Amino acid sequence: xxxxxxxxxxxxxxxxxxxxxxxxxxxRRRPEVEHEREVALFDLLEExxxxxxxxxxxxxxxHLKLAxxxxxxxxxxxxxxxxxxxxxxxxxxxxxxxxxDYFMVCESYYDAIKTSSPSQIEAIDMGxxxxxxxxxxxxxxxxxxxxxxxHNTSRRLFTLICVLHxxx
Length: 168
Fold this sequence. Notes:
Layout: E1 16-21, H1 31-46, E2 50-52, E3 62-69, E4 72-79, E5 84-91, H2 93-115, H3 118-143, E6 147-149, H4 151-164
Parallel strand pairs: 1-3
Antiparallel strand pairs: 2-6, 3-4, 4-5
């Protein structure tokens, strides 16, 4: 971090430096889910690749707001001053079954941690990671015409999308 920029943000163009989740009307979340959300946010802000495509868009860094609106997943991207850069709206449908399956496997994983053998926990965790990777790849493909993401960024964003699906 330089003396001219104690936040380090000037050294991180083409990245997300702030994330806001539209968390209206949520059900109470399990502590494990809340922990996953916090870790995903922390890791995403620590290191990510988010390259907005399109003529006239600022090179970043960006502020990102994620929301579910009716049957759409909405990414509102703004520059550091809050000026809108791009809104990306994706149909939720391609994610629904993945998110549902991911939640089911996560529930099994959280329960297994309490009572199962290490080999059983590892097997469930492998399934959980495979679904998470599938969700990340689906997200990366769906946003590819608007934004370039690396694998870790798409994984962390998929975690946040899963959290958004926990609406009441």
